Design the sequence.
């Protein structure tokens, strides 16, 4: 997720706003502390135009 976000030039707080969640959630997903639910994975796949099986 961090790779895609950085490649797109989006900050954590911007991605959090787009996905309507907290920046803490984004940070937890990116650090591996928490795995994103499938709804987030599908939203990221659509947002970044990648397959949902992309290694987030």
Sequence:
């Amino acid at each position: 997720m961090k790779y895609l976000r950085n490649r797109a030039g989006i900050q954590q707080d911007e991605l959090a706003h787009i996905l309507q969640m907290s920046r803490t959630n984004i940070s937890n997903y990116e650090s591996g502390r928490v795995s994103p639910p499938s709804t987030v994975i599908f939203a990221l796949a659509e947002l970044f135009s990648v397959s949902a099986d992309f290694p987030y």
